[in-house]
Amino acid sequence: MRSRRPATASVPAIRRGAMVPQPWIGFFAGMKQGLTGPAGSATQWEGAAARRRRALLIAIGVSALGAAGLLAHAQTATDQWALRIGQVMLYTLLFAWVTAGFVTAMMGFIVQLRGDRHALSAASVENRPIRADARTAIVMPICNENVAAVFAGLRATCESLAATGASRLFDVYLLSDTNDPSIRAAELAAWGQLRDSCGDGARVYYRWRQRRSRRKAGNVADFCRRWGRNYRYMVVLDADSVMSGGCLLSLVRLMEANPRAGILQTAPQACGLSTIHARAQQFAGRVTGRLFTAGMQYWQLGESHYWGHNAIIRVEPFMKHCALAPLPGHGGLAGDILSHDFVEAALMRRAGYHVWLVTDLPGSYEQQPPNLIEELQRDRRWCQGNLQNARLIAEPGLHSVHRAMLATGAMAYLSAPLWLAFVLLGMLSWLASGEAVIGAGQGLPIEMIALWACTVTMLTLPRVLGVVTIVLKGESAQYGGVAGLIQGALLEGALSVLQAPVRMMAHSIFVLVALTGLRLNWKSPPREAEAIEWSDAVRRFAPFGGIVLGLLAVALAVDPRVAVWLLPVALPLLLAAPLAVLTSRVAPGERLRALGVLMTPEESRTPSVLRQAWTHARQTPPAPRWPDVVTDPWLFEVVRLSMGTRNTETGVRGRARRRLVQRVLQDQDAEAVSPAERMRLLSEPQHIAHLRDRLAANWSLGIERARSS
Questions:
Q1: Per-domain boundaries in the chain
Q2: Is 50 exceeded by the pLDDT of residue 5?
Q3: 301 in helix, strand or coil?
């Protein structure tokens, strides 16, 4: 880390806000406080927030009760009362869940067309001057990432910021948890190249944690302990994040204009990948996702989400109130908090600061997983983290909206096994009664037709309104024209229907894994397009197909009509492997782009910061080899600079390093060093310098002897 010696913050100050689970006595604590702001003071938006949340809850309650009544009335009278009650309870809960999303999307549709005067808007602070003491750190935690893609995006972000003329207000920190020596050597080389490209005035720092703990949350906490007191704000990025300089300045201006704002979350747009799967997800986020995002902003207002990246945080209250203690106990729902972002938002609001979602701020970008397997792999960690968070719903002092967000985060994954249980209960009811519980022999009752029609409408109408919004706002040209927009919406909807049972089955397994405490292995999804091999797809999805075939065999043996109940779920599961393979290919995605299908504004008119990022990614030089660390003078200086000036020659560790260096010198082969030993040498300035000098001397001596002979 170059430049000044970093200051440190006291550890006790970090721990004061640590959250630990409490008894359920506090479930309703803060319900009123959640709508009144800090110290009971009234603000302009709180009355509107109360009305909007009340309307949302009424809509959910009325819909759920109506669904329960209709389903109960439609069921055939049988002796299987337990199955009937189970079906009604499950469907009521799931109908309420679907209604919540639907009403949120409807609110977002209204906001897209009419705006929202209570929302926090970037337009309100345009060209507002920023004080010189409003210093901001841009922090990017990384761990075994694709180095070329990460540094290409960060370089584009730094260049865009420099173009605004305000880069003096920002420092950039790369916080590495990488444990692969080859990747770490590539990180150091890329860091050196980034510093050189940004010029002598660039303040781009690199830190590698020797003791990794608590993943990304621990890495950010480590930054706060060491350097947090030097900054008023910090912008947290993911490894795949790209942000424009204008977006970064707008975030700082909004923070300066709203001193009670603790976190401002942008709505990052997904872009950058060309597989059918990724392009469908990017398109869905732009067309339908914008309604849900605007709707969440509509009823959350100052008590909103934090998604862990592409957001700005007020550092002082974050350090005082947002530290996370491990959850006590054993199993998958104990230990370090994985989905830390929702909890940090809840703690920030409990401390009296507002959390806002800013939806009208362009220039914030991220990437989607390139294929279905990588998406599910990412969801596995998110599932465990969100289920962990459910343990904190009753934490005293939390605001009602954040309690609801902790609950809905868990429900996002619990809904999968609940839908699966509802389908299986229907099949069991059919088998137990000898006829369909809903009246198979007499045709579908009108109540059931109405229920299914309502469910399908609530699931599909947001997609329709997303298309309508784009057309009414005159933006269809950015989506390939009206025809391309409609074709893209139909294709994305069809893929979503086919993938829904696969996600349902996978999420059900993830919930089971989390609740039973089975071991969770997870790594970051790749940031570039990777096609799925047929063998991998068959291996991953064959168990799903086996389960479905077994259920179909039982159904056909008992009553062939039961198979009709299972077909909407069974067919997509049987087609999961070919669907995953075909949607992971780049070439079909590029052909669809050429036809103007699944187009997004970032594809039709790419922002300059993204063009720069993609150009830098294509022009990245080859990654260095391990021996280059000691043989390349430029890279050696970069490596040495990253270590600081600490003394590593004394004590037990110093003696162990000296023996390691001596062994390498005896073998005359830097490649013979094990990965663990390479990692040690990359953090030992004196010993790697000694190794470099001795190897260079020995190689020079060998050359001289060869010449003389």
A1: 1-134+238-531+584-621, 628-708
A2: no
A3: coil
